[in-house]
Amino acid sequence: MEVLRHGVVHPPLEPEEGRSERPGHRTPFPSSRPDDAGEGERTEISAVGHKLEGMDNAMTALTAETRSMRLEIAGFQSQISGLDHRVTAVESQVALQTDRDQELFHLRSKLTDLEDRSRRNNIRFLGFPEGIEGTDIGGHSNRSGRR
Asked: Which portions of the chain have biased composition (kind: Basic and acidic residues) (predicted)?
């Protein structure tokens, strides 16, 4: 009797009548030849063949699913790698922007201080004509105040 394994019909696994191909070795299984096998054995062998076929189909489906998952994981890894590069670039831009913000704050503080200092030295006297003080402002103020 031919046996169905993995969806393919094969000749019986055992040589004739329970004998092994190796001399002196007997197989633990009875012969599967049609004239030796009973109806119950044929049914059992057929059931085992169907189970093997089902297992083969399940294994094929699992293999296909595994391949699909591997491809999907590879795609995720590629996306994660791309995102990692983008995040690194954004982090470096943020660090640079933070440095620029600190420098801008420092420059604005310095500008405010310089403006305040320049205003302190710019005292305007109203009511005096321009240029009459010459080089001695203090003396001119004293003379003007005495009048």
From this structure: 33-42
Contact residues for 1 (Cβ-Cβ < 8 A; gap 6+):
12, 32, 33, 34, 37, 42, 45
Q: Where are the beta strands (DSSP E) in 25-78?
A: none
Tell me the C-alpha distance between 120 and 116, whole Å.
6
What string of pLDDT tens digits covers the 147 residues of the chain? 565 556 666 665 555 554 555 555 555 555 555 555 578 888 999 999 999 999 999 999 999 999 999 999 999 999 999 999 999 999 999 999 999 999 999 999 999 999 888 887 667 777 777 776 666 666 655 555 555
Would residue 10 be called left, alpha or beta, if left means φ above 0 and alpha means ψ between -120 and 50 degrees?
A: beta
d(CA 13, CA 7): 15
Taking the whole predicted model, whether its pTM rises above 0.85 is answered as: no
